[in-house]
Design goal:
The complex is a heterotrimer of chains A (489), B (319) and C (240).
Chain A (H helix, E strand, L loop, with lengths): L1 H20 L3 H28 L2 E2 L6 E2 L1 H30 L5 H23 L3 H19 L5 H36 L9 H7 L5 H19 L7 H8 L2 H30 L3 H20 L6 H22 L2 H32 L10 H4 L1 H14 L6 H16 L4 H24 L14 H15 L3 H15 L5
Antiparallel strand pairs in A: 1-2
Helix pairs in contact in A: 1-2, 1-4, 2-3, 2-4, 3-4, 3-10, 3-13, 3-19, 4-5, 4-10, 5-6, 5-10, 6-8, 6-9, 8-10, 8-11, 9-10, 9-12, 10-12, 10-13, 11-12, 11-17, 12-13, 13-15, 13-16, 13-18, 13-19, 15-17, 15-18, 16-18
Chain B lengths: L1 H35 L9 H11 L10 H20 L15 H21 L3 H32 L4 H11 L5 H17 L18 H4 L5 H26 L10 H28 L8 H23 L3
Helix pairs in contact in B: 1-3, 1-9, 1-10, 2-9, 3-4, 3-9, 4-5, 5-6, 5-7, 5-11, 7-9, 7-11, 9-10
Chain C lengths: L8 H22 L3 H26 L4 H26 L12 H25 L8 H17 L3 H23 L4 H29 L12 H4 L14
Helix pairs in contact in C: 1-2, 1-5, 2-3, 2-6, 3-6, 3-7, 4-5, 5-6, 6-7
The chains are: A mainly alpha (489), B mainly alpha (319), C mainly alpha (240).
Chain lengths: 489, 319, 240
């Protein structure tokens, strides 16, 4: 499947290229161009898989099915739109003297390197390589978090590095345990025992005790990257201190990929255990993250920090939904993954512009956006409305689906869910209202802003809210069948 | 009946050998040390001469000393004598093997220490009290480490009896046991502490600020001092024999033939001579540590012993 | 589980060296001075390489020799050397960290060993390998590395802890499955190398910004202090 190789090689080659020319004015454009090419090839690949079913490359190193190909396309898409935003945003930062040429080269190279790591993690068939790619994603982003070299950003990057490093080490141990269980069953000396396809075929006969132990380690490991409470401490720091395009892709993509890894493993464990242990664990962690992050929204003073807590909240909800299992919840979770990525990256883009406008990220100093620059004000307002789960946006649809699925199997859990929605809504809007409608401080003037990605994303989310297009629904349905074994439609 | 008698005689002879050879070991250590530090070495028999000289000298006893002060040297020497009788030196399965229990051994040491500390307090000098308090503090930390190390060993041998344990180990042949490695290190550290060697205490000085053991016996003279000195030489030898015969039991006599006994004597002498060299190297390389660091040192010994026990459970058993 | 005395001498040696790997973990845990700590880490890598080589020899899995070479190059020479160089250049090689409760820390480590023993029991019962008893030790090395990172406040110490976690993971792969597939091992080694270099970069940044490598001082971003922050140093400067 040459499409896949091209999809992977594009960002890798781009990373190398941009390491040399990333500081030139054309660097931003090259970044966008590579993003666009990657998106085109990934889309072609997605359509191919959609038409012809799952595909395995000849070396069995890559495996593409409906579940990951849709995430590949989503990743490439958000990567592209964020690159568009990043071009003007980062140029502005250079003009303000916050960044040097060297750091711009680093930034662009790592941006593409990060996308490469994400795409590799999504498309690989080898659980070990998945781990390596996840770790590589941390490594590529850690220097981006500290790009501004302020004490805060260095602290944030250090925490990010250490916590994610230690967390993901647990996941490697879990992977070793999986390998152990597979070798025990399939015999030693084979070199394909860590392939997901092989493991999935043999999952029913793997030792349940070892697999449940492995799952605990994997949950802690990848859960750290998902940002599940209480392993979330790195997330708000890393999101708030890095450059805004980084926050957008971290929140919109990295968390998704970590959750993807978790769901893949859950599929194995479920087949082996024949119980809902993995599901219950994920539901518990997810629900706690959902509730706690909602509460933390209230006491934030930094706008990017606030929205990163909102990310934790939504990742918690998705984790909960995947844990709930069943076709409806899985479908809802997949949809939520999509709409959250789109909405959250749009919000971070807007927030980046708002922070440039106000000259600060402190919520109490960002005032009157809608009067100074209506595009940013409306963007922030609509984005927040969308992420809070208002109809007619797509987040409402997916949250409604999740609520319905909860009502079916765990009716009393609907109560905390509803309370959580309310708390998060209140938390977001008490800060949002003065920022958008308040009195603008004197001397505040508009900045050059590229709202195209925001509008694109919000329109997509709106479209998904009004009606899910047929091909997308069938696509999600295919992925749902893969994950939960039954079709929701 | 004859056999029994012979065995008892042998046990008595072994004890005598033990007690008699202890000053020799001390002399050997001193000699090797002098060589290593490029000093003129005293004769190998110097400790015997010292003891003999002290025996001949008059006693000088503080006027306020009670009977405890006078009795202590005999208690100390007696305890050491009994302990020496219990430890298999040349042969195992002797009748004294019945009391050759490690816990008994620890108790004998504790008894001797108890009386020494009391005697140090008895005469009421500042040094005596200071030495006693230090000695008891250190002992309180050393004893758990020692017991832990011993328990690690006895878990492999399924017995705290030295004679039985050595038998079991000889049966098993050469097995690389991590627990023994840790126990050996722990026991060596405890031995260094208990016998008052560097880096915990320095037997060669009488420096007020640092001395521990010497401070308690500062008031002793004449034959009392000789007995106490001899007692500590025996104690050093007991530890050395313990380490030598538990961790390298090969060569010890298991039947009471002349050849086996001669071989056993030769082997144990070689082992002790070698251990003495190790001790000398250790004392030459290390500096004496501050007394406040001693708890750390012993904490480390305890940790080693604990690790020995853990590795025994985790790595060695077929549970 | 296997009784030690029934194993061949080579396997006994594997277990002996495995226990020494655990011992180096404890040394690192209690070692307050930086340079000896780095050396202890190098020793751990060395012992690990010895264990791996023995396993490769006994089991006939020759691809493990590549892992041995990787371990030797990375964990015994390159990373300790890097850390040592950094420590000297940042002038912290003579520093010692004031450990609050060293004995509690060590006892905690011992507790973790017991915990790992219980965690490993189901795996050990399943395994047919001669090295299976050491699985618990490898878990303990991982957990003690974590304890080290939690308890120590110096950045260098945290990095050593991080790397020793990696050691433990590699160890667990060697003794439970005779190593991971080669592509994974190479990938992990690459990640570790990059991480080590990044850590080095960070030391300089931290020194520049905080004038210290005490992680304790990284406290600007906690939720508690957030509300007390009055300056705006974390956000873009005013004016365009």
């Amino acid at each position: 499947m040459p499409l896949l190789e091209i999809t992977l090689l594009l960002p890798l080659g781009g990373s190398v290229l941009l390491a040399f020319v990333g500081h030139r004015p054309a660097g931003g454009w090259i970044n966008v161009g590579i993003g666009a090419l990657t998106f085109v090839t990934s889309l072609a690949m997605a359509l191919n898989v959609f038409a012809n079913g799952p595909q395995l490359t000849s070396g069995k190193l890559f495996y593409i099915d409906a579940f990951n190909v849709y995430l590949v396309a989503l990743t490439a898409w958000v990567g592209l739109t964020t690159a568009i935003f990043s071009r003007s945003y980062m140029r502005h930062e250079v003009e303000r003297g916050r960044l040097t040429d060297r750091r711009m080269r680093l930034y662009h190279a790592m941006y593409q390197g990060f996308l490469f790591a994400m795409l590799l993690a999504l498309s690989t068939n080898n659980l070990g390589v998945l781990w390596v790619a996840m770790e590589a994603a941390t490594l590529t982003t850690v220097l981006l978090v500290s790009l501004y070299r302020t004490p805060e950003s260095i602290e944030a990057a250090w925490k990010y590095f250490i916590l994610c490093g230690v967390g993901i080490a647990q996941a490697l141990f879990g992977t070793v345990l999986l390998y152990f269980a597979a070798e025990h069953k399939l015999g030693a000396g084979r070199d394909d025992t860590l392939l997901w396809t092989v493991l999935h075929d043999a999952a029913g006969s793997l030792d349940p005790t070892v697999l449940s132990l492995a799952f605990v380690f994997l949950l802690v490991g990848y859960g750290t990257k998902v940002g599940l409470v209480p392993l979330h401490a790195w997330l708000p720091d890393a999101h708030s201190e890095g450059p805004t395009p980084m926050s957008a892709v971290l929140s919109g993509l990295l968390l998704n990929v970590a959750l993807y890894a978790l769901v893949r493993v859950k599929m194995l464990v479920d087949a082996s255990l024949q119980t809902h242990l993995a599901g219950y664990l994920m539901m518990g962690f997810g629900l706690v993250s959902f509730m706690v992050a909602g509460l933390f929204l209230h006491r934030q003073h930094d706008i990017k920090r606030m929205f990163s807590y909102s990310s934790i909240e939504h990742m918690g909800l998705m984790t909960y939904a995947f844990g709930l299992g069943g076709p409806l919840a899985t479908f809802g979770a997949l949809l939520h993954m999509t709409v959250h990525s789109l909405t959250k990256s749009a919000i971070f883009v807007t927030v980046g512009h708002a922070a440039q406008l106000a000259g600060t990220q402190r919520i109490d100093r960002i005032r009157g956006l809608i009067r100074t620059q209506p595009a940013i004000g409306w963007g922030l307002l609509l984005g927040t409305v969308a992420i809070a789960g208002f109809p007619p946006f797509g987040v409402f649809t997916s949250e409604f689906l999740l609520l319905t699925a909860t009502m079916k199997s765990w009716p009393w859990l609907a109560v905390p869910l509803l309370v959580g929605f309310g708390v998060a809504f209140a938390g977001l809007f008490r800060h949002l209202q003065p920022m958008v409608f308040g009195e603008p401080p004197p001397g505040q003037s508009a900045v050059r802003a590229n709202m195209l990605p925001v509008m694109l994303h919000l329109l997509l989310v709106l479209w998904l809210g009004l009606s899910i297009p047929g091909f997308l629904a069938r696509w999600f349905a295919q992925a749902t069948v893969l994950i939960s074994g039954a079709s929701p439609l | 009946m004859d056999h029994q008698l012979a065995a008892w005689l042998l046990a008595a002879a072994q004890t005598l050998l033990f007690v008699g050879a202890a000053p020799l070991l001390a002399g050997w250590i001193k000699r090797v040390k002098c060589h290593m530090q490029n000093r003129a070495a005293p004769s190998l028999w110097q400790p015997y001469r010292d003891l003999a000289k002290l025996m001949r000298k008059d006693l000088v006893i503080a006027s306020n000393a009670s009977w405890l002060f006078r009795a202590t040297p005999y208690f100390v020497f007696g305890a050491m004598l009994l302990a020496a009788a219990a430890v298999p030196l040349v042969a195992v399965d002797l009748p004294t093997g019945a009391i050759a229990d490690v816990i008994v051994l620890v108790a004998f040491f504790a008894l001797a220490r108890f009386f020494t500390a009391l005697a140090g307090l008895d005469i009421g000098t500042a040094f005596g009290g200071m030495g006693a308090s230090r000695e008891m503090t250190i002992a309180a930390l050393a004893e758990p480490a020692m017991l832990m190390a011993v328990f690690t060993l006895s878990m492999t041998a399924h017995s705290t009896n030295l004679s039985t344990a050595i038998d079991v180990l000889l049966e098993a042949g050469l097995v690389l046991r991590p627990s023994f490695l840790f126990a050996l290190l722990a026991l060596a550290m405890v031995a260094v502490t208990e016998t008052g060697r560097i880096p915990v205490d320095n037997p060669a000085t009488h420096l007020e600020l640092t001395m521990i053991h010497e401070a308690m016996i500062l008031e002793y003279s004449g034959r009392h001092l000789a007995l106490i000195e001899w007692g500590s030489q025996i104690k050093l030898m007991i530890y050395a024999v313990l380490i030598a015969n538990i961790f390298w039991p090969w060569g010890i006599a298991r039947e009471f033939t002349a050849e086996a006994l001669a071989l056993g004597t030769l082997v144990v002498a070689t082992k002790l001579a070698f251990l003495a060299v190790v001790l000398v190297v250790w004392e030459t390389v290390l500096a004496k540590m501050r007394i406040f660091r001693v708890p750390e040192f012993l904490g480390f010994a305890f940790l080693l012993a604990l690790l020995g026990m853990l590795t025994h459970v985790v790595l060695e058993t077929g549970g | 589980m296997t009784v030690l005395s029934e194993l061949s001498l080579y396997n006994q040696a594997i277990i002996l060296f495995a226990s020494l790997v655990l011992f180096t973990s404890f040394i690192m845990l209690a070692q307050a001075r930086m340079v000896p700590m780095i050396f202890a880490f190098a020793w751990q890598g060395m012992l690990l390489a010895v264990v791996t080589a023995l396993v490769a020899y006994v089991s006939g899995h020759h691809h493990l020799y590549i892992s041995v070479a990787l371990t030797l190059a990375l964990k015994v020479f390159l990373i300790p050397w890097l850390l040592y160089r950094l420590a000297v250049r940042l002038n912290i090689h003579l520093e010692a960290e004031a450990l609050k409760h060293p004995s509690l820390l060590l006892l905690g480590g011992a507790g973790l060993v017991i915990f790992s023993y219980y965690v490993a029991l189901p795996i050990v019962h399943l395994s047919g390998l001669a090295t299976r008893n050491t699985i618990a030790v490898s878990i303990a090395v991982v957990l003690i590395g974590m304890l080290l990172m939690i308890a120590r406040k110096k950045a260098v110490a945290q990095v050593v802890g991080f790397m020793s976690i990696e050691n433990g993971l590699f160890f667990s792969a060697v003794v439970s499955t005779y190593g991971m597939p080669l592509i994974v091992e190479l990938g992990v080694a690459f990640d570790v190398l990059v991480a080590a270099i990044l850590f080095g970069v960070f030391f300089f940044h931290m020194r520049e910004s905080f004038d210290t490598l005490d992680v304790d001082r990284l406290n600007r971003l906690s939720e508690v202090h957030e509300s007390l922050l009055t300056d705006d140093s974390g956000s873009p400067p005013e004016g365009h």
